[in-house]
């Protein structure tokens, strides 16, 4: 958990709390505040941990409720205890309902359904695949239908290590869509030489989104007509 202090005072009245890696939750909160939405609903794909490096934990603390999707059974347990008022689902996202190989990496933040991505981690030199397990997967459409009556939550957070673009392209934006998206767009590199996946932002721009902010690791986008209509 990080604290950003705009102006140090004894009363700490300017303190702002952030659980995100680079303050993404504060940026997203600013967008929703300006849209007049104080408690946005959310779906967090690849949620990893209830609070550590979470882009939705701040909203949970402020009264928002949503859906957390975490495929790793060992990581998932914490959500049942720490985010019990959310809908917590121990599955991965796939094209359809079924089972898929899930690569457990020596650093859990890198766990992935992508064999290519897992092999890339190994090539970095400091990581290893500790286990490959079969994990249930379901389509994003099915999950939203089953757990949110088919209505897309207002905030979509995606950190799915190698399948982020697949998830984004699986959404039917003509039916229901998030107002704000925060998605990892930088490929992993322990040396800091990661490459931005511009295909993701290009695709979302075509679907009516505009890039609001970029923290290098993540890109934050907002539905353009909604943003422009509120300002």
Automatic annotation (TrEMBL):
GO biological process: methylation
Coiled-coil regions listed in the entry: none
Membrane-traversing stretches: none
Ranges of residues in domain Methyltransferase FkbM: 44-209
Keywords, sorted A to Z: Methyltransferase, Transferase
NCBIfam families noted in UniProt: fkbM_fam
Pfam family, one: Methyltransf_21
Keyword Transferase: yes
Molecular function terms from GO: methyltransferase activity
Superkingdom of origin: Bacteria
Xref: SUPFAM superfamilies: S-adenosyl-L-methionine-dependent methyltransferases (SSF53335)
Entry protein name: FkbM family methyltransferase
